[in-house]
User: Fold these one by one.
Assistant:
Number 1:
Amino acid sequence: MIDVVSYLPARRKQTASGWISFNAVCCQHNGNTADRRQRGGVKTSDQGWSYHCFNCGYTASFIIGRNVSLKARRLLTWLNVPEEEIERINLESLKHRSIEGIINDRQRVYGQLADIKFDETDLPTHTEFLDNPDCEEYQYLVRRCAPMDYPYMIIWNGDSSKQHYTRNGVVIPFTYDNVVVGYTIRFLDDRMPKYINNMQPGYVFGTDLQKHNWQYAIVCEGIFDALSISGLAVMHNEINDAQVRLIRSLGKEIIVVPDQDRAGVGLIDRAMELGWSVSIPNWPDGVKDINDAVIRLGKLTALMTIMQAQQTSRIKIELSKKQLMKKLDNGSKTQNSGL
């Protein structure tokens, strides 16, 4: 297969998250001015590569076993890859598909439901990689105990005539099979909304964080909950049928950890309906969710409390649910008495 990195411009740098950034080669072909801020990014894997321009929004990807798409062909041409080399890549990829591609597809979804797919999605334009430890966005992620090797972006405020958002925020790409399929923006001020999501139906954040040799997958509500423990986030307090299908395709034992508020009760009921384990740890006052627990207790201790509180018995889950409701009622009474 092609070593796409060898065709990249000489002036480039690699981020901690594995992205190689360089002056994007697509902008002038898409009606924009030439990039001078190294806002093109390539990330490679054993299965291929993915490209994103964080200036004009152009995306392209290639996975071994598939045809070289029109967008990937255009990118390779702009990188001065000869046409005959592109054709050779395409033929080799299809040969690989005939021999190993089907097996690899099955391995990627642990032998189940290989037809689950999401459309590749452009990230917001005028964003750039977050690689400055001194900036506000970086420090915010550190305070949230988010892993700093994830490919976060920040909204670039360098050209107010072009930017889509006037508020500082962190852009968190959603990936599936190492391809960007959506994103969320977490704004850092106190205004509403705090988040803007671009999320396809049935998507679950964190599938690419899971390891083949892990026995358990922890399902939670929020994206920072999932990031802080390499879990799965359904992004709300419900789990729809398409998300159930995706989660089950991982072939792991599922532990659902609801937020410890009244909305989280719905997640408990849904988990029991699906026959999944539930964990409602006895966290200290003020700790409402997994991310709070990681910030207060540390990642290892938070994970230990989750595993120790795991319940598979419906009777025991119902008992834990009642204890949670009692704790919430007592908290409400205490708060009201102090008014």
Number 2:
Amino acid sequence: MAGYLHLTSIDLNKGVAIFWFRRDLRLEDNTGLSAALKSGYPVLAVFIFDTEILDGLPEDDARVSFIYNKVRDLNNTLRDTSGSSMAIYYGRPAEVFEGLLKDFDVRAVYANHDYEPYARERDAAVAGLLNTRGIGFHTFKDQVIFEKDELLKEDGDPYVVYTPYMRKWKAALDADCLPEIHHAPSYQGRFLQQQFTIPDLSELGFKPSPVQVPDYELHAGLIRNYEDKRNFPAMNGTTRLGPHLRFGTVSVRQVLLKVLKEKNESLLNELIWREFFMQILWHFPNTVNESFKKKYDRIPWRNDLAEFEKWKQGETGFGLVDAGIRQLNQTGYMHNRVRMLVASFLCKHLLIDWRWGEAYFAEKLLDYELSSNVGNWQWAAGSGVDAAPYFRIFNPITQANKFDPGLEYTKQWVPEFGTDGYVDEMVDHKMARERCLKTYKAALD
């Protein structure tokens, strides 16, 4: 473990409360941070570049660059507004906290909930360590409106179909009124008045990425026109909120209030889909690697490596599929409508395991969210909760005609489309459809 903590004089007699930044990289409307600042102890802001997550990532991973820049921005804000700064570490969280407990008189640790399987194991290890020292580990709901067991069916089971979950979600929101916004109090005097050295990105084993995470858009016009534009990849009709919700650079509560103000049900439903998949992952963590519908694990996937490589390079011969993959490879983003087509093509036209596609998206997507990625890939394969039936197979040609009729999006990313320089279709649609139906039916009957 390499720590980047440089100490000057500290009043250890007073003790400190630690706020552990994770997927909540903001000061405003941060639930756990607000609680820490009210603890009565000077707050030491900590961020850990977790080697369990970072090991194996490419050195120019755009998400690491994004996180690093946001942490640096937070540090600059703390320095300018409160004379404090963040203590930044690189290592395994439990080992980092071992060091923190040696360097500081820690009275309490605050953080926000994280729901992914690894995060739950990580937090349990840190909580166990703190418990042996009599130190409380206080965590809070922050990245969702409803979590864990807050929305259950009448029989106490979790929802596995979206529509009744969505209705329950909206009814619960009406019953509870609007969510509380935790405005950041005055920073002066509430953070530990110390300066810490911020490591260079190179000290973490990374370098700046040429791919940038774009700012999100959530102005009134976009929200009002969301339903009309969101399915057409050539239009600028989506919010780009994904990475910002993933890493907490924006508050989901403040996003929700803007959406409610414009009364846009389509965008509200997308926020609810996000929470639906999060509660599925919470209740069914095995779905990261196993089909939710167990019988779908009987499908004899072809898993042709050469065909998988063509798919990854955007050389399938189907313009809209290839445009989506190439957009992903170059920018870390793929339009949501195109994601469904690209995923369906891999699973059903090529009969390649959804887990292969999920892993590739995990490597490339700037807005990679484990719960949504697994949920949507299993939806495309037919194996997940509330999934598309296995006989629903997107036709990549009719999808292109419907959603990119002018070929603006396709030709932006596949400029050779329609010329002799474009690759042939790697599979016949009719044959692939019949093969998929036969394969699925044999496995599932």
